[in-house]
TrEMBL record:
Family matches, as Pfam families: Amidase_3, AMIN
Protein EC: 3.5.1.28
Organism: Polaromonas vacuolata
Protein name in UniProt: N-acetylmuramoyl-L-alanine amidase AmiC
Catalytic activity: Hydrolyzes the link between N-acetylmuramoyl residues and L-amino acid residues in certain cell-wall glycopeptides
Family per record: Belongs to the N-acetylmuramoyl-L-alanine amidase 3 family.
Length: 474
């Protein structure tokens, strides 16, 4: 290349070129370099795969925008995507290698040069899917991204998933002694047992008993019958199941804040959420629902929609704070505000968390986005009042296991807290940007203490605010 440039700018060594000749030859060099760039197309920065039960995401990051055209074939199900402005290079073959055999949605993948400047990616699928293929402009540390989201055409019902998980946990009870089985029949009937009875046609009294709670519950959610009842009588006298939606922040393409030691927020908050889930599931007639249970991205609006779909009684979003300096420390709890942020720091934090969609990669052209945005604009004073009660109950318990950044619940316009009918809080567990607190967040001991504190806060809230009756239809 250097020799070619020299031949254009100075073909005869020792000869001095005129200004006109030099300009003409420089123009030829620019034209040649531009043609060469077009021939090789975009450069691939990175390729990533994010498999999950809910959907699989593939991303191709490049230095210039790649224009996609998609074709979906139903039998057998497969998706073909033509990518314009790029030639086949080894980096694209790396994407094929990233697909694992246990991917819930992808059976296999192949890539080839379809025509000059156009690469075709063919994805063989394990089931019918609803693909979303879109591009994202540079944001945060990312350059241009081509995103392929593969959603199952028949998404599992989240309540059915809760039932299946409960049934799986209860299997060991079937081999218990007869005396234990007899005692289980006299125990209060779990609402999940009733739901399973509807699906299986069996009496709830014959289903395995729920796991006993290790801690004495602060409230009696289920009424104990004075004498044995039929299944229909029990259903009429049994209060409903209480569901707590847990929302581990960020995930997938969005790592959240990153500590000085490289700890990613999305990883530690998922671990804390999983520990809290286990504690909730041990409570009588209480179950946890996670907006994500693995490393994948969930848009803010979908997090709220998921909680509303299972008719959650509470929504707890779990995060790890960060700031420009390493000095700030301590946990915080936030609730929604309809009158502006309670402090400039709360406003800054809300703006930072609300940017998760742009970092994680939201398809703004999706048809349901307008519905999501309309839903997020709804909020009520009753929801905010109950959210403040929940936040205060949690903040008092968190203060018993670690430092608090603020001694009161703060308020700001967090998008993820805008479910109009669910008391919702956002818990910043610690400052991951502080080296000492980053180490605590990574430690099992602190995660256990924090999960215990959050569980006590939830139970204290329900002790003061018993859940209202509500019908749930499966």
């Amino acid at each position: 290349m250097k020799r070619m440039q020299d031949s254009l700018t100075n073909p005869i060594p020792g000869k001095r070129l005129s200004r006109r000749e030099l300009l003409a030859r420089s123009s030829a060099l620019v034209l040649m370099l531009g043609t060469q760039h077009l021939a090789y197309g975009a450069s691939i920065v990175a390729v990533r795969a994010w498999p999950s039960k809910e959907y699989t995401r593939l991303t191709i990051e490049s230095d210039v925008e790649i224009k996609p055209r998609q074709f979906f074939l139903a039998d057998p199900p497969r998706l073909a995507v033509d990518m314009e402005g790029i030639d086949l290079i080894p980096a694209l073959r790396e994407l094929v290698a990233k697909v694992k055999p246990d991917d819930p949605n992808i059976l296999g993948m192949r890539v080839g040069q379809n025509s000059p400047g156009v690469v075709r990616l063919v994805i063989d699928l394990k089931q019918a899917i609803l693909p979303q293929v879109f591009t994202l402009t540079p944001v945060a540390s990312y350059q241009y991204r081509l995103v392929l989201d593969l959603y199952p055409a028949q998404a599992p019902d989240p309540l059915d998933v809760l039932i299946a998980a409960h049934l799986a946990q209860s299997q060991p009870a079937q081999t218990a002694p007869v005396a234990a089985a007899s005692a289980a029949r006299k125990a209060p009937i779990d609402m999940l047992d009733e739901l399973m009875a509807k699906h299986s046609g069996k009496s709830p009294a014959l289903l395995p008993a729920p796991i006993a709670a290790p801690l004495a519950p602060l409230i009696a959610i289920t009424k104990t019958p004075a004498e044995p009842l039929t299944a229909s009588q029990a259903a009429s006298k049994t209060d409903r199941l209480v569901i707590v939606a847990l929302d581990p922040g960020h995930g997938g393409e969005d790592p959240g804040a990153i500590g000085p030691g490289g700890t990613q927020e999305k990883d530690v908050v998922l671990q804390i959420a999983l520990r809290l889930r286990d504690r909730i599931n041990l409570q009588p007639n209480m179950r946890a629902f996670l907006t994500r249970d693995a490393d994948f991205f969930v848009p803010l609006g979908q997090r709220v929609q998921k909680a509303r779909r299972v008719q959650a009684d509470l929504f707890v979003s779990i995060h790890a704070d960060a700031f420009f300096t390493a000095r700030p420390q301590g946990a915080s709890v936030f609730a929604l505000s309809d009158k502006g942020a309670s402090s400039s720091a709360a406003r800054w934090m809300a703006n930072k968390e609300n940017s998760a969609d742009s970092v994680g990669g939201l398809n703004v052209q999706a048809k349901d986005e307008q519905v999501q945005k309309a839903m997020l604009d709804m909020s009520t004073s009753a929801q905010i009042r109950d959210s403040m009660r929940l936040g205060n109950a949690m903040l008092g318990e968190i203060g018993n296991v670690g430092k608090l950044h603020k001694a009161q619940v703060e308020q700001a316009g967090f998008a993820v807290l805008k479910a109009p009918d669910i008391p919702s809080v956002l818990v910043e567990t610690a400052f991951i940007s502080n080296p000492d607190e980053e180490a605590k967040l990574r430690s099992e001991a602190y995660q256990v203490q924090l999960a215990d504190a959050l569980m006590r806060g939830i139970k204290l809230y329900f002790a003061r605010n018993p859940p209202m009756a509500r019908s749930r239809v499966v």
